[in-house]
Specification:
By secondary structure, the protein is an alpha/beta fold. Helix 11 (about 180-195) packs across helix 12. It is globular, with a radius of gyration of 28 Å.
Length: about 575
């Protein structure tokens, strides 16, 4: 395989690489070789793609569209293993030629890496049509393969017409049976979810199909699957339950389990949950990458002013800092950024989490285990005897945990935690509603941060577009922003869609924040048990920027869109 990669790489580029770089290129999967070559050459990826195409005498195919007439010619496994896709090139859909003419026309193929002799031989096995190769963005080629053949392309294919995968050639004695196909398919589904940066995978049995969906950037995305997937439904569900060490014979009761999954250098702690439905068990996987890159406050999307407000409180020796928001709004990620900001050799930091999502060097991290009696409240009681300076409690779920956390803050500890509330002032009334005395809440809480995550515009393809004045005025009213802004803003960046962002117009997410800090006036309102609305009005009067206003700032700076902010922040702020 090494020789093949070296042979296909033009000499003008191969000569610029060291032996180690050539070896790394040879060992990388086809869809990752451009990325490896880009790192080796030290130039941007688009420039690497152009250098590679020019050196090989190929053109670059942009805005790819698959060729529906050629899709049935090639087995899914071949397409998936070699990462190429038949494309329509220079021909409109309505100009499709007759079958006898089509059979003699060149077959245009977009590939993630330079074609080699083995690929050409396999293609000649399945079609006599002459081949015309084009280089394309690897992510887009891979996406089209998934869209047209389904995730895990070829894993469950039972009509390969003689094609044998490269790994099978290396292991001639291996018997590839149905069980092995299911194992490979499940691995492909999880690996693709990692590639797409999904946070959850859902296997949902329906009447005539097994539906698979990923949650990517906070949205559920249907995953294209092989046409014969329903036939393997029971085997796939059993495989997942075996991986999670569940009882595969128990299908009537919900079960919980864990999978330790390793693929391409990533180690994931996957939480698995099953529930019985009318067709079969529905299985949800929560992906927790133990080694993923931690976020700094800058990378979270906090402005310099927001960071200044927070850092001032992080230097306090005691008090409670709360982060609020719905599930999946990035609360744990924000707390982790705070811990990394203050982490030092002269501080003893202990965390109580469920689950531990990030490993923080030098911090003592504890996993709660309710099944054996180690709840947040119990763990917090024991942690207080461990001489901590800073304590992070994953979530305040009940009065017991809240009381202990407040007592810890009042006795000289800095405490971080989270709550599920819609806005920052709501955290105060939530604690009072739990049964905590208002004077304790007012004395202990130093800062409350409400947050949401909005999709970030793709920097490669987003373009300014005119904005409707009427829509803008209506949107600003919903977000609680001054209508005067509508007079000064005439265009905003909008999503377009390109090969880099897989046609969505968005890549990644950025946070919007509402920072609430009690002053003397608000302290009195808390003691009087005033409503969340009253507290919010007072906070806004004292300069608090709401979630809607923070979102509007992100829109004006070109990081996201007005529609995206409105989708995430659904409650009108008055």
């Amino acid at each position: 395989m090494t020789a093949l990669v070296t042979d296909t790489l033009p000499a003008s580029l191969a000569g610029r690489l060291t032996d180690e770089q050539r070896q790394a290129l040879a060992e990388a999967p086809r869809e990752k070789r451009l990325e490896v070559l880009t790192a080796a050459l030290g130039v941007p990826e688009p420039e690497t793609l152009k250098l590679l195409a020019d050196a090989a005498g190929l053109d670059i195919a942009l805005n790819l569209e698959t060729d529906p007439d050629a899709r049935g010619i090639l087995p899914a496994r071949l397409v998936y293993d070699y990462q190429f896709i038949p494309i329509r090139y220079g021909q409109a859909m309505e100009d499709r030629p007759a079958p006898e003419v089509l059979a003699k026309m060149p077959l245009h193929l977009a590939t993630a890496w330079l074609p080699d002799a083995v690929m050409a031989d396999w293609l000649r096995t399945f079609t006599p049509r002459p081949q015309v190769w084009h280089l394309a963005v690897p992510e887009r080629v891979h996406q089209l393969i998934i869209e047209n053949f389904g995730v895990g392309s070829g894993s469950l294919e039972d009509s390969d017409d003689g094609y044998v995968a490269p790994e099978a050639l290396q292991q001639q004695e291996e018997v590839v049976d149905e069980d092995a196909a299911v194992v490979r398919f499940v691995t492909d589904v999880i690996s693709q979810a990692i590639e797409d940066q999904a946070t959850d995978i859902h296997f949902e049995p329906q009447e005539e199909q097994l539906r698979i969906r990923y949650r990517v950037d906070g949205l559920l995305v249907p995953v294209p699957v092989p046409e014969n997937l329903l036939r393997f439904q029971d085997a796939i569900i059993s495989r997942l339950k075996i991986m999670a060490r569940m009882n595969i014979s128990e299908k009537r009761l919900p079960q919980d389990g864990r999978i330790n999954f390793k693929a391409r250098g990533a180690t994931l702690d996957i939480r698995v949950s099953t529930v019985p439905t009318i067709y079969a068990e529905s299985i949800s996987l929560r992906l927790l990458n133990q080694k993923k890159e931690a976020y700094t406050m800058d990378r979270l999307g906090m402005s310099a002013d927001e960071q200044a407000q927070i850092v001032q409180i992080l230097d306090y020796p005691h008090g409670i800092i709360l982060v609020t928001g719905p599930t999946g709004s990035g609360k744990s990620t924000t707390l982790n950024a705070f811990l990394r900001k203050i982490n030092a050799t002269d501080l003893r930091i202990i965390t109580i989490e469920d689950p531990i999502e990030y490993e923080v060097p030098g911090v003592n991290q504890m996993q709660v285990r309710p099944e054996i009696g180690l709840t947040f409240a119990d763990a917090l009681r024991h942690v207080l005897r461990q001489d901590p300076d800073v304590i992070m409690v994953g979530e305040i779920r009940d009065k017991d945990t809240a009381e202990i956390a407040i007592r810890a803050s009042l006795t000289g500890h800095l405490v971080f935690s989270t709550l599920h509330t819609n806005d920052a002032p709501g955290a105060i009334t939530r604690l009072v509603d739990m049964g905590i005395e208002p004077f304790l809440v007012a004395s202990a809480i130093e800062l409350v941060i409400a947050q949401r995550l909005v999709r970030r515009l793709c920097p490669e393809c987003s373009r300014p577009a005119p904005v409707s004045k009427i829509k803008l005025i209506e949107s600003l009213a919903i977000l609680g922003c001054p209508p005067d802004d509508a007079e000064t803003v005439h265009e905003l960046k909008s999503p377009v869609g390109c090969d880099r962002c897989r046609g969505t117009g968005y890549r990644g997410r950025v946070g919007v924040f509402e920072i609430f800090r009690l002053n003397d006036e608000m302290h009195e309102l808390v003691l009087k048990r005033e409503s969340t609305r009253t507290l919010a009005e007072c906070a806004r009067k004292n300069g608090m920027r709401t979630l809607g206003q923070s979102g509007w700032e992100k829109v004006k700076s070109g990081l996201t869109t007005l529609d995206e902010v409105l989708r995430v922040i659904t409650v009108a702020e008055k």
